[in-house]
Structure prediction request, 142 residues.
Amino acid sequence: MFNPSREQVRLFFFDAWREYRNGAALAGTAVQAVNIALMHPEYHGILDAPERYLNREWTPEDGQTNPFLHMSMHLAIEEQRSIDQPPGIVAAMQALEAQSRDPHAAQHVAMECLGEMVWRAQRAGTAPDALQYLDCLRRLGR
Prediction:
């Protein structure tokens, strides 16, 4: 399993954004990362200043969402959907999209379920529960 460090994740987003801004050809997940960043203009200033934001802490007490966590969750949902893993996520995401009529908004709803699943697993010291995740997605997609 790929388990990048916080710094590696941030550098990936910074590098993809820099390449995009320089007009370089992008491939693979860098294309997805840039597309996600383009949907979030509020993060462009952060992505333009890696020296300032590489080690920045975003805490709930700040009242700000960690942009790298947010973009990583988008990336995770897109990857899950591309391989229908966990099985059924494609249908669950389609239902969310039909409800919201906006794929980006549907991903934001799905992030609530993804975040809850990860939080529960961390708290219990267990593996993430894919069935609980799908149940949450289906419940919100009704």
Remarks:
- The radius of gyration is 16 Å.
- Residues 103-124 form the longest helix (22 residues).
- The mean pLDDT is 93.
- Residues 116 and 133 are 8 Å apart (CA to CA).
